[in-house]
Amino acid sequence: KTLTYEQELAGLERAAKNALLRRLVTAHILATGSTHTYFSEEAGAAQARARRWLEVIKAAKLSRVEDAEYLGWIGYMRGDYADAGRWLKLSSGTTPAALWLKAKLERREGHLAEAAKAMAEAWKTLRDEHAYTGWAGRSRVSDYYSGGDDFEYVYRGEAPSWSLSQEASGDFAALYLQRADFVQALDIFFKADLWNDAAYVAERVLTTTELKRYVDQLPAKTVSPTPVMAYTFGWQDKIPATGKLRYLLGRRLVREHRYNDATPYLQPPFDQILRRYVDSLRAGENEALTKRDRALALFRAAWIARYDGMEIMGTEMAPDGFTEAGDFPVPDLAAQRVSGKAEQMTYAGEKKIPSVLRATRDETKRVAKSGASPDVRFHYRLIAGALAIKAAALLSDNSEELPDVINMAGRWTKEQDEKVADRYFNLLEKRAAQTDIGRAAIARRWFVDMNGPWSTKLDLDEKQMKKELGLRDPYEEYLQQQQSPTPTPPSAP
What we know:
Elements: H1 5-16, H2 19-31, H3 43-60, H4 68-77, H5 81-89, H6 96-108, H7 112-126, H8 130-133, H9 164-178, H10 182-191, H11 195-205, H12 208-216, H13 241-255, H14 259-262, H15 270-285, H16 291-313, H17 333-339, E1 341-346, E2 349-354, H18 361-369, H19 379-392, H20 401-413, H21 418-431, H22 436-444, H23 453-469, H24 474-483
Antiparallel strand pairs: 1-2
């Protein structure tokens, strides 16, 4: 039987006067989505229920409200922060829920020291008690995204469970981030399995020295997954947490050209691929070699940068998104923190909302110094293109190898920076007009899908190298199977 509005209101008024029923209704309101960003067609109804219940509680004029902090949470999740503060004053103020709410409200007022103190008290319980850590324990694939006001504003990630412990850890770490205690912020994010936030702090906020010091004090690295896991779907997620942070550090060191320091931190067998990359770079600079040999070495380095760049120098978060294997763009947490605008994903689309906590001047300076160069998605493709053009400078005009090298540089960079690709095309037109690849490109007025002698050679070398290292590419194997002739079945005996 459907109750009328008046009947439902009368029932709520009776419930407000009974401590047990009051708790049950409050719990129901909290559980059915009182946040204004609730991802449901029933969001409006949930908001109406929360608003009506608060009005009923106020009208009851109770001298004591046992669950006042939870009612404060309803107000907070509705965006009524003044109301949340009034309910908080009616609570004992000592429960984890009350302390956490106090920390959030203090944070909104800019009282970071008071917020940190309250959050530290709340966290002592929230991080350990079974009621807060979730039935399945902590999630291994969770995101908090410290650029936002609260966790509700962002995608939570796919995980078997999400615990209040993790959400509290995100709030706690965000306060440390705001107070410029960056190493402590990383430590909390990392140990709470809030990987993307930990990666942001590790990759963009800490200096390399600070990150290396933190990584080196972690427990000894565990056994790495076998190389055969690489290039299979989700292989990055199978790396233990400590290994992921070590690998992030290794790739960051590569981006800073600290190759010797980077090698011990890279995930095997990509440490060996890095050695081949560095050997090729050094050979390209060795003036004792012929120009042709130097050019081939530089082109080999370019080839490795293009086809193994994600694994040896890709950024975990934006712009490259190693955390998603480069398959999807990832949120640019650095841009969100610096701009003070967090991305909110809803069924209505994406929009930007103001952040409560914006990056401090110190954090902003650190972010400005730590970005990928160039700061574009798949930035290593532009590095590969630049190395190929450097190789081209050592080759003669209209030689067989020259158009191969320049054309490949253009193919690698045209999606990342069209202006750079235009310069490469002009170079191809100027220096290789009398070659097959040059003529085909000029006729098309753009780069062509043609491989010359060096591209053909390096493609085969790359496949052989990965075979020797035990790396498999399931997609490549599938293509080979499709291209292989169907074997003739044996004749019957």
